[in-house]
Amino acid sequence: MMQSSRSRISRAALGLSRTFLTLTLLSLGMQSANALDVYVDLQGDDANDGSQSAPVASVERAREIARPSVGKENVTVWIGDGVHHLPQTLMFESGDSGSAEHPVVYRAVNEGQAILSGGSRLELNWQPFRDGIVQANTTPGLVIDQLFVGGQLQRMARYPNYDPSKTTQAYQGRVADAFSKERAARWSDPSGGFIHAMHRARWGGYHYRITGKDSDGNVTFEGGWQNNRPSGMHADQRMVENIFEELDAPGEWYHNAKTNTLYFYPGPAVDLKAAKIEVVRLRHLIEFQGTEQLPVRHITLNGFVFRHSARTFMETKEPMLRSDWTIYRGGAVVLTGTEDVAIANSEFDQVGGNAIFVNHYNRRARISGCHIHDAGASGVCLVGDPDAVRDPLFQYGHKNDLTKVDRTPGPKTNNYPADCVVEDCLIHGIGRVERQPAGVQIEMAQHITVRDCSIYDCARAGINIGDGAWGGHLIEGCDVFDTVQETHDHGSFNSWGRDRYWSSDRGASQKVIDAEPSFPFLDAVETTVIRNSRWRCDHGWDIDLDDGSSNYDITNNLMLAGGLKLREGFRRRAWNNITLNNGLHPHVWYNDSGDEVFGNIFMAAPQGARMPTKTAKGKRVDGNLYFANAPEIKNRYASFGWDVNSIVADPKFIDPAKGDFRVEDDSPALKIGFKNFPMDQFGVQKPSLKKIAKTPVIPALDVKNSLNKPRSDSGRVTRPQSIYWLGAKLDDLKGEEFSAYGVAKEEGGVALSAVAPSSLAAKAGLQEGDVIQGLNGKRVGKGSDLLAEFQGASGSTLRLKVVREQRVIDVVTDSAPSVVLESFESPAAIEQAHQEAPADAKVNANHPVRDAPLPSLTDGKLEEGYGPVFANGVDSGAYRLDLGTVQSVVSIVSWSTDRNGVRGAQKLTLYASDSASDPGWNVEDRSRFTPLVSVDTTSRKHGRFNSVGLRSKDGHTLGRFRWIVWKVQPVTQRGENTAFQELQVQTR
User: Fold this and answer.
1) What are the phi and psi torsion angles at 615 (to 5°)?
2) What is the pLDDT of residues 315-328, one digit of tens each?
3) pLDDT at residue 967 in the model
4) What is the CA radius of gyration of the chain?
5) Which residues pair with 630 in a beta bridge?
6) What are the two backbone dihedrals, phi and then psi, of residue 84, each rounded to the nearest 5 degrees?
7) Which of 37, 518, 618, 716 has an alpha carbon 20 to 30 Å from 789's alpha carbon atom?
8) Pairing mode, if any, of strands 133-137 and 261-264?
9) Which residues, in sequence order, are bridge partners of residue 207?
10) Residue 418 — very low, low, confident or very high, per pLDDT cuts 50/70/90?
11) 907-913 average pLDDT score
12) Looking at the DSSP assignment, which residues form a beta bridge with residue 555?
């Protein structure tokens, strides 16, 4: 049997909150001798006194009747069944407050039957239009943002059409030509329409209002401020709506405000004569408006359905601290300046923006037993004031002077949410309109608890913590899955911590932290705990601690798919977790980060991105169990001291098929200190919500039989060798390296993993860690693309698209050398070769050569033979030319002949050395050799004679060298090497 209670530590943590909840519920249900009851009924009259026999008609009037008694006696406002259309946002101010002794409760007579609506009902006379579409006249001045038919949200006419089965496709239907000139030619007047497009790297989305078309027929629009790391729309993931000509599918509608006509395409099951037609008016249904000095206190909303709040995507403008996000400070219910306000046992049904927004100063707000579904933006947001943050920055690339930032720990004001709880809630269908949402979003807040929540079907993260300010959060007992459905590079749990200490220039942060180890904890002042929860993310990581996330304890978590990612940050402790079919994903850690990963059950070797290194390896990664049939799986980073005391064994799960991953009493996992934790208490506990809540698919176990190695489908017979461009080492991005460098997989890119200060790349303005994504307007997806485009640049100015510190910049250089490729069919090539022959140069090789003596490489003659060729299968051959003295080199050329139709291609990397004596053959020794460039002509058409030349610009040189090395590789799948004829160096 599964365990029926949490671990002792969890029960202790729950005790106080359970007692509080019990007392709260008792206060809701008990009547005192000194109490006021006010009744609201749709058949009531606001002229009545609000008694049970003479109810009022509106909640506003009930609030007025209650106000003289609040804080003096218990007050309960009973709201009857039916749809209560709010004429305006219902406001609660300090004067409406209760007290701890005499709380105020607004309560549905029957839970879930009293609907508070921000919409209006329309009485329409439908008439046929065409092709199954009907039309009706509307009242002049009516604005329709959303249309509900029979309680169900319908869709604005859109292109492409909505397909609910495409749960992981952007907008459930997207197309590259959404607003192309050709498509727009079909539209008579698109003004008032909307463009929705994913961010280029899928870090959320953008929204635009169409203003019309220009004289050339191109769509004009405004907007795009919804993402705080803007880099343009995704090329393909786009959609438009509210375009009359796109009204062509059941469930779509269009309102022409100029002619006061509503068009609707009803589905076959819709009975328009009986269906209730409603439209949305209000952005906010209820607001609590107080301040720290005059808070709204001790009011509870219990048992309601909140419906019909307007979409707010065009108002999502406020940037969060150096994050991807902008935000709209609003929702169906907004809490500002409250203490001990609760929202309980309520449903938020298809609201247009955020469901609940806990804004600025709030203390002990409690959201419990709620069902939040199909929200346009986020479920629950708890967001403080940036002015409470010391030295706040807002754009990703902004940097503080780290020597001057305020060293005072913690916030500078109290204007933020603290000691608030989101408990026992069912949250799903998050981000139906906006693509930068979360089930629960925490930003600039402290001591927030998210407990016993089921969160799934989210466009982005299930739970998101936006920074380290100011920590102390508790995430426990949650069940979070089917997340990151439409975005990219996130997790079911997602966080970042771009706090005072953090800089996109990691070296700048590291320098200060080395001198001040407490620096990273000025904002993340208290530890955030993630425990006793279940996570599954199939499109990212289960738990993703991103940029700068610091001061976390992660324990007793079951991770079902994406594993655990820990990017740069400090003091993260992960222990006693189970990660199925996956493992640890360490990304770009700082030196001496203090991270500890121990006592976990993993099923895959760690997958580091740009790490570990001798100094960036954390405090302890050891004492874990790897469930595999490969003893070597724990040894990937053994040279860094990782997993020396870890074991590889079967943990003996009790019943994995049914999701019980506790281990048997004789499990070897117990020997590493692992302790069982409950497997039957994840997610919502309220019986009515638990009955309808979904649970994640439990994956079949994939027990690995070997340590994963880099995959190759090319049948390559040669060993991979380093590739260089302008002296910088190139690395193609793969797997999680895209995330580590902050670029999208779709766009690709090649990283400069080593750039020597004296290299040509450095002189061109490039830096180590740069990612090149374009050259002279051509896309660069990998190193071979860069080399190919460079080889065709013919000495022109180089215009590079570079991602540096996760920001796109342009780098332009006129001083870079060029690679010149030439082919000749006639003996004229011989004359050219003779003109460039070096004097007194000597050549040798690191392997024996065949068919011709080595000196023939410098005799100024081209022949149609093999030349001094390396034998088939030699995959590390090198020729070396000694100029005798150090000289200024301006050109390096190698000639080949196309022997047998395959030997004319050249695949090589050029190195140079200024050593006074023989530098040897270890070209990777940077104390002796300087890399220049790699060249690969295997995909080109070759003539009888072919040359590859690296040539400096006029007035420049390639450097001062004595030794030039051609490190070559085979050019065919059979391992055949190039038939080199001449090696030439021109000096000045």
Assistant:
1) -105, -30
2) 999 999 998 889 99
3) 96
4) 34
5) none
6) -100, 100
7) 716
8) antiparallel
9) 196
10) very high
11) 95
12) 531, 575
pLDDT average, residue stretch 568-585: 97
DSSP 8-state code for residue 968: E
Q: DSSP character for 24? A: H
Q: Which of 361-365, 648-652, 824-828 has the lowest mean pLDDT?
A: 824-828
- Interatomic CA distance for residues 365 and 290, integer angstroms: 13
Which DSSP string corresponds to 458-524?
Answer: ESSEEEEE---SSB--EEES-EEES--SSS-S-EEEEE----TT--SSHHHHHHHHHH-TTGGGTTS
Residue 543 in tokens: 């738990």
The C-alpha atoms of residue 771 and residue 167 are separated, in whole angstroms, by 32
Distance (Å, whole) CA 604 – CA 607: 8
Paired with 344 in beta bridges are 302, 368
Cβ partners under 8 Å of residue 217, min gap 6: 181, 184, 185
Model confidence pLDDT, tens digit, residues 371-409: 999 999 999 999 999 999 999 999 888 899 999 999 999
Instruction: Say how far apart CA 550 and CA 848 lie, in whole Å.
Output: 56
CB atoms closer than 10 angstroms to residue 730: 22
Which tokens sit at 795? 């000495």
pLDDT at 420: 98
The region that residue 397 occupies, defined by phi over 0 for left and psi between -120 and 50 for alpha, beta otherwise, is alpha
**Nearest-5° angle of CA 348, CA 351, CA 357?**
75
Question: Helices marked H in 725-865 — which ranges?
Answer: 737-741, 760-763, 783-791, 828-835
Paired tokens of 308: 């019909």
Host H or E run for residue 381: strand 380-383
Distance of CA 128 to the CA centre of its chain: 47
Tens digits of per-residue pLDDT, 18-48? 434 444 444 444 444 579 999 999 999 999 9
Smallest Cα–Cα separation from 897: which of 859, 853, 929, 865?
865
Q: Helices in 642-795 by DSSP H: which ranges?
A: 687-690, 737-741, 760-763, 783-791
In this predicted structure, which of 355-369, 838-852, 888-902 has the lowest mean pLDDT? 838-852
Nearest to residue 961, comparing CAs of 880, 900, 861?
880
In angstroms, rounded to a whole number, what is the distance separating the alpha carbons of residues 637 and 619?
14
What are the distances in angstroms from CA 746 to CA 105, 173, 201, 420, 806? 52, 18, 8, 40, 15
Q: 87: cis peptide before it, omega within 30°?
A: no
Q: Which amino acid is at 516?
A: E
Asked if residue 470 has a cis previous peptide bond (ω within 30° of 0), the answer is yes
Q: Is the dihedral of CA 955, 959, 960, 966 positive or negative?
A: negative
- Amino acid identity of residue 873, one-letter, is G
pLDDT in tens, 650-659: 999 999 999 9
Residue 535, pLDDT > 80, answer: yes
State in Å, rounded, how far the first CA of the chain is from the last one: 84
| 338 in Cβ contact with 288 (< 8 Å) | yes
Write b or e for each residue in 174-188: b if 16 or more Cβ atoms lie within 10 A of its Cβ, otherwise e. bbeebbeeebbeebe
Q: What is the C-alpha to C-alpha distance for residues 683 and 234, in angstroms, rounded to an integer?
A: 35
Partners of 128 in the β-ladder: 134
* pLDDT for position 27: 45
Identity at 133, one-letter amino acid code: I
Distance CA 637, CA 608 (A): 9
Note the pTM of the prediction, 2 decimals.
0.82
- pLDDT, the chain, mean: 91
The H or E element containing residue 59 is helix 59-66
Question: Distance between CA atoms of 682 and 687, rounded to whole angstroms?
Answer: 13
Q: Is the pLDDT of residue 12 over 50?
A: no
**Rounded distance, CA 963 to CA 969, Å?**
20
Dihedral sign computed on CA atoms, order 276, 281, 284, 290: negative
Compute the distance between CA of residue 402 and CA of residue 391 in angstroms, rounded to an integer. Answer: 10
944-968 b/e with 16+ CB inside 10 Å = b?
bbbbbbbbbeeebbbbebbbbbbbb
